[in-house]
Amino acid sequence: MSRLTDRALVLFSVCVYLFLYAPIAVLIFFSFNAGDSTQNWRGFSTRWYGELLRDQTVLDAFYNSLVVGLSATAFATVIGTLAALALSRHDFRGKTAADSTIYAATVMPEIVVGVSLLSFFVAAGVGLGITTIVVAHVAFTISFVTIVVRARLTGMDPAFEEAAQDLGAPPVTTFFRVTLPLILPGVMAGGLLAFTLSFDDFVITFFVSGVGSSTLPLKIYSMIKFGVTPVINALSTVVVLVTLVIILGAGRFFSRDETAKTGP
Amino acid sequence: MRGARKGWSLGLAGLLAPAALWLGLFFVAPLLIILVYSFGTSGVYGGITLGFNPGNYLNVFDPLYLEIIGRTFVIAATNTLICLLLGYPLAYFIALKGGRWRNVLILLVVVPFWTSFLIRAYAWVVILNGNGLANKALQFLGVTDQPLTLIFTPQAVTMGMAYAYLPFMILPLYAALEKFDVSLKEASQDLGASRWQTFWRVTFPLSTPGVVAGSILVFIPSAGEFVIPDLLGGSRSLMVGNLVQQQFLQARDWAFGSALAMLLAVLLVGAITFYVRRVGAEKLEEA
Amino acid sequence: MERGTRLRRVTRGEFLRLAGAGALAGSTLSVLAACTANTTQQQGGGGGGGDEKVLNFYNWSEYVAEGTIPGFEEEFGVKVTQDFYNSNEELLAKLQAGGSGYDVIVPSDYMVSAMISEDILLRLDRARIPNFENLSEDFRGLPYDPNTAYSITYQWGTTGILYNTEAVDEEVTGLDALWDERYRGRIGMLDDVREAFGASLKRLGYSLNSKDAAELDEAQAQLEEQKPLLRGYFASPEATDLVIGGDLVLTQAFSGEALTAVGENDNLAYVIPAEGATRWTDCLAIPKSAPHQEMAYRFLNYILDPEVGAELSNYTYYGTPNKAALPMIDEEARDDPAIYPPPEVAENLEVIEDLGEATRDYERRFTEVKSA
Predict the structure, then answer these.
(1) Which pTM does this prediction carry?
(2) CB spacing of A142 vs B22 below 8 angstroms
(3) What is the domain partition of chain B in residue ranges?
(4) Domain B54-286: which topology?
(5) Which residue in C89, C233, C371 is closest to B250 by CB distance?
(6) How distant is the Cα of C128 from the closest Cα of chain A, in angstroms?
(7) How many Cβ contacts (< 8 angstroms) between chains B and C?
(8) Residues B156, B158, B164, CA angle at the centre, nearest 5°?
(9) Per-residue pLDDT tens for B57-109?
(10) Which of A214, B232, B279, C206 is 20 to 30 A from A26, comparing alpha carbons?
(11) Model ipTM?
């Protein structure tokens, strides 16, 4: 009976992964399209990979997206984790307001956030550029990190931390050697989410970007008017394959022993 | 809340300060600008004259717009449920059965989302259109002999929404499930509970924070969604997100757009706070 | 806590330290990169004669031929930064907030008049654009810029009907085809309020710039009738792709991509409807806040050069407004009535005008159609 449910679970999971990767397969397929279309197949060709190397605007945009994504993720993860710790461990006046603000930050339609930030930056006389994009991205991803890390923290047994402190560890040590390892999967999950949101953001980025700070989504979305060419497919294929190779190849380092996970 | 420290302290202030500062400056302040705009009057070409004009809010309470808002909420709620049904087993699988490949597996969930969403949405159009893979497969399997209309339908939008928001559900669920102590499960089964009972009475309740977090992270952005109904639905029906976009851009009615956005925010935050307090808090009490 | 088995895996502690170090390094590098990237930004805010050898060009994507920008860079020893926007409205919103830092922008016709009203554009000094004389008279003094004082037409085109000649029984000549019951579920319209209403109004014999409530009511009702026949409202390139792929047999489309599709597919054709259609123009303009006005003028002048203009239009399949460039346009394109319509067709074409306040009425009506 349990073997059956186990097998069903595996099958189900595989199906979900297929669902997630189906468009990727199509993406990769059309990156080899001889024609100009991302939808109509015209034969096999590797020309788009060559085009990709020649297309400075796409490459620049990709570089910008990476820079913004990594920077924003770094900041948002730290800030969001701290906030999550505060909110899940403490009860204080103004907590509901804090909670609501965190939620509200995920609620606001992007166009509203974008336009309001633009107005804000202009009123403050701040020049638009990569920095303003990073600032904006951090602002809208903090809440996501906080919510995810909180899910990890809530109901977590404070016994470990209390034990550490009973044993004389100062708060900072307790944090780095007890708390952080325990919440790391949550922090990682939050960070992943933040990066994903940042990397593919269009609306907010559009409004707060300045000259020469185009990101990949800006470039892609603006190709809508004249049709996206498979250059983007080629780029996406490269991104996916490189990432997969890194993840699977470094899988040994990322892997953790099952026995190391069970409690004391 | 177990072990919650009451009241303000230096430590608390330190933890909260960075977030408070950043959000305060770059989220709340701009938001206040929007609040002020919502009471302003729009210029003919966009831009705004400030003042006190409640007319924008009155315009929002128009059956046309209310219907759109209502429909959006239904779509968002449905999407949340679907993501939960699809995402929970996967998160469970990775967290509890993933063993040492856990980290790799969870990363694999996210990797597709590092490629442009727009391009992947177009890929779905390719898969689902008349000559696409889906139809070819169905015809091959003999299910049908004419191509079915799969794309640019409400069903395609539903599927597209689930596709777009699945990681938002899986990641928090994973974060919550990953800390699950397997020995609790073993203990329950040792005491005679069936696998099913163990799941419902031990595992699931302990993962509730993840369910709550995931639901919030799916429901809220779903309500603000505007790209998917256009790309996968043929732009045949509007969600609130489309409306707000429209007001700020094509109609250049920033005041009305701001009022719409404010209303949406209030409704959603209200709904979420209610949900968290009732569902989240109760479950935590039990746990 | 128990540790690993006999095979030494990376311990949790080591993993954490590695991850932490990696994250720290990664973010430091990124922040550094971000700072350096930012210091090469050109700031906007207040027009300037700034004679740095830089031009910030804000354009639609894929709207320049391969040689256009490199040619300009070479000729004047200038570095051109290209950024892209997605719609006229986004361009407007961005510029309205102030000093965006762009020197040359490419608004469409109706947006030019909106921007003139908002005092965003620089009044052009024709003395600084010697090639102005190459601009065809047909493109001077257009309603959105009566004295051709603020804009130079860049490319122009029409919005007509792209269709599959094998799937559609007879030759398409007019807008009725888009309302034809026989093609239910395989018709497309543009997801653009002015184009959709434009087609509907023209079919009823009205102007596509109508502000008359009765006319608009009729047009709206006609669109609501049409909706069940439609597959959806699409952006032009997507609609074109769908016709190529076979999901649609008829659609509204912009001339450029429609004609590119016709060129590559024998079974497609593009026609300008007899009742009339939109003639749209995209224009070069200089924002008042442009930091490099001198370079901006040179760019405008450069585009009006006959060879540059010809190269551009031969790439985009749109019409060139440059009479000196016409002889160098590919013969096939020059003779194609879909790109350069003959006078009897041309007189039915209408330019989209900005309707000011009435725009909101149109938007609301389109919302009603979509919610129907």
Answers:
(1) 0.83
(2) yes
(3) 1-38, 54-286
(4) MetI-like fold (1.10.3720)
(5) C89
(6) 25
(7) 82
(8) 100
(9) 888 888 999 999 999 999 999 999 999 999 999 999 998 888 888 888 988 89
(10) A214
(11) 0.85
